[in-house]
């Protein structure tokens, strides 16, 4: 029996293997992402000299929260986030840059 357009698009829409498990850490993060800003160490310096250490920390945070290793190394990882996750991690990133 051929699949309908609705069936095929639904299968592509959200595969179960790509879903992010809602852990207590993730739920806390989503309810108050600002509480995680103070944990970002080091803050990114204005001259960018510590960008590798800063990105390593953000990758560790994303691994803790989303279960995705090397999160910042692959743009397609952002597709896995829902809108609230995306806004929350963006808030932490923007707030952890020193001016």
What is the compact description of this entry?
The chain is mainly α and 99 residues long.
Task: Please explain how this structure is put together.
- This protein is mostly helical and 99 residues long.
- The chain has a domain at 32-99.
- It is 51% helix and 0% strand.
- The longest helix has 16 residues, at 51-66.
- The radius of gyration is 16 Å and the shape is globular.
- Mean pLDDT is 83; it is low at 1-17.
Task: Describe the secondary-structure layout.
Elements: H1 5-13, H2 24-31, H3 34-37, H4 51-66, H5 83-95
List keywords for this structure.
5 helices; 0% strand; single chain; 99 residues
Please report the number of helical segments: 5
Q: Which residue ranges are poorly predicted, with pLDDT under 50 across at least 5 consecutive positions?
A: 1-17
Largest sheet report: none
| Alpha-beta classification | mainly alpha
Query: What is the distance, rounded to the nearest whole angstrom, between the alpha carbons of the first and last residues?
Result: 60 Å
Strand content: under 5%
H/E element string? HHHHH
Tell me, briefly, the overall form: globular
Over all CA atoms, what is the radius of gyration?
A: 16 Å
User: Would you count the extended β strands for me?
Assistant: 0
Helical fraction equals 40-55%
């Amino acid at each position: 029996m051929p699949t309908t357009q609705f069936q095929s698009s639904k299968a592509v829409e959200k595969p179960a293997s790509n879903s992010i498990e809602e852990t207590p850490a993730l739920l806390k993060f989503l309810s108050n992402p600002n509480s995680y800003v103070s944990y970002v160490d080091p803050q990114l310096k204005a001259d960018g000299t510590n960008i590798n250490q800063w990105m390593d920390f953000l990758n560790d945070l994303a691994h803790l929260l989303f279960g995705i290793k090397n999160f910042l190394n692959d743009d397609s990882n952002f597709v896995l986030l829902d809108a609230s996750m995306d806004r929350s991690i963006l808030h932490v990133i923007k707030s952890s840059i020193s001016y």
